Amino acid sequence: MNAALIGATGLIGQLLLQKLIDSGCYEHILLVGRKLPQYQETAATKVTFIQCQLSQLPTLALPFNIDHAFCCLGTTIKQAGSQQAFIAVDKTACIEFITRCQANANFVITALGANSQSKAFYNRVKGEAQNELIDLLAKSQQASSPKRLWLFQPSLLLGKRGENRILEDAGKGLFSLISPLFIGPLHKYRPIEAEQVAASILAYAISAQDPDNASIQRVIVVSNAEMLTS
Asked: How far is it between the farthest Cα atoms of the chain?
């Protein structure tokens, strides 16, 4: 099987990339992005990198067919510079990547609280991206549409990033201290290690290969609580 991954230099993406390589499930892994991430290749898996701006995704030429597509794109308003630039990453590029890959199974990170009707800009954009991906799925009889879709909705991510996010880092410190208080109905909001998210994505990707799961529902939403306990 072959896989494609975008967002491999991010917190979850870099962890997931190494897990995909180490799993031995993929003969080829295609990386798409502006920068080549760090990874350790194995004899069982060959990694191909295509340097690509997000604006070039609609015309991206893939070197081989993709069975599993993984989207780990994510930014902040501060990093992006504007709301429109944020949308270009977290919504437009995500949809264009999944559409371009034409994979049988697609794994996309969104966010806890993603809702196209939300008053919060971040959650609204994430929800709109989810809805458009699901709409693509509904048109799966077309060659350009995805077949099956997993949506992962993590809460605040814990882990070491390559760049500084001062407010987010401060929030992580606070939430790490009060995390044990997230019990009962609050458990679903508990901060989660990026390592757990990456491990959960890999587990679902491996499960997708099982022929006994061929009749599984076509859209699967994986909640933060499910990832915490998986």
From this structure: 49
